[in-house]
Design a protein that fits this description.
This protein has one domain: SH3 type barrels (Roll). Helices cover 29% and strands 35% of the residues. The protein has 2 helices and 5 strands; from the N terminus they run E-E-E-E-E-H-H. The longest helix is centred in the C-terminal third of the chain and has 14 residues.
């Protein structure tokens, strides 16, 4: 993935390795959540977080409104389809 694209964490798949399943516009894939975990926001608290996903990492937490705005802008720029196609290919190749 080239851009940070919004997605929502739907489950924790491996708490020790800081891996979670994220839903990005209906496509689910595993990502690393190390960048958003802290003492004040442990792994278990990440479920349902909206995050910006970049190259398989949740880079930052964002609110749902910001996620919707970002997706809308990316759609207007024609970038969402490219990112979703890349995600589909990475999921299918596993």
């Amino acid at each position: 993935m080239c851009l940070g694209i919004p997605g929502q964490i739907v489950s924790i798949t491996d708490p020790e390795k800081l891996l979670a399943k994220v839903d990005v516009s209906g496509i689910k894939r595993e990502i690393n959540i190390a960048c958003i975990v802290s003492d004040g926001h442990p792994v278990a608290a990440c479920v349902s977080d909206w995050v910006l996903v970049h190259v398989g990492f949740a880079m930052s937490r964002i609110d749902e409104e910001e996620a919707a705005r970002t997706l809308q802008i990316l759609e207007e720029l024609g970038e969402v389809e490219l990112e979703l196609d890349a995600m589909k290919l990475s999921v299918e190749s596993k």
